[in-house]
Amino acid sequence: MSTAIYRLAVYAGSFDPPTLGHLDLIERASALFSDVIVGIGRHPSRSPLFSIEERLDLVSRVSSHLPNVKVEAFGGLLIQFCKQKQASVIVRGLRAATDFEYELQIAHANADLEPDVDTVFLPTRTKNGFISASLVREIASHGGDASRYAPKIVCEALKTKFSSP
């Protein structure tokens, strides 16, 4: 007899724009944890292509098929957001060994600040290992076809964004 354990996980990033790699991690996290919050970070020092409202909308739309996923914006430290939401897990994706060193450093700092929140690393699927939001923006900014790297909804939003004067 098994009893389900409630585990709220947070998968955070800028999602500017959301990619197929992001969507894969959201789907995998939703299968592993009872509930997932996709946290979209507000960084006052950055100038994103898409506004926070646009990113909330895009991520909500691409993950709408996952009933245990919510999308929220946050400012400040991710670990404070997790504590506020009473999340017990942070999900981070790893594309390459270079990601691991940086992510491990952040995971150690988060564990020091809030020992009750664990970080779980999920390696990207091979087909998504090279995809990044900056790659998708670069392709789209030159009128290229980013449909192999981003959901259709995102590609349409990119076309609109880059065709605007």
Nutshell version of this structure?
This protein is α/β, with parallel strands linked by helices and 165 residues long. Helix content is 42%, strand content 20%. A five-stranded parallel β-sheet has the order 3-2-1-4-5, sandwiched between helices.
Could you name the ranges where pLDDT drops below 50 across 5 or more consecutive residues? none
**Tally the helices: what do you get?**
6
What is the CATH domain class?
A: Alpha Beta
Strand content: 15-25%
Strand order of the largest sheet: 3-2-1-4-5
Q: How much is the average pLDDT?
A: 93
Give an overview in words:
It is a single chain. The protein is α/β, with parallel strands linked by helices. It has a single domain, classed as Rossmann fold (3-Layer(aba) Sandwich). Helix content is 42%, strand content 20%. It contains six helices and five strands; from the N terminus they run E-H-E-H-E-H-E-H-E-H-H. It has helices spanning 20-32, 52-62, 78-85, 97-113, 133-141, 152-163, and strands at residues 8-13, 35-42, 69-75, 89-94, 118-123. A five-stranded parallel beta sheet has the order 3-2-1-4-5, with helices on both faces. Strand 4 (89-94), helix 4 (97-113) and strand 5 form a beta-alpha-beta unit. The longest helix has 17 residues, at 97-113. It is globular, with a radius of gyration of 16 Å.
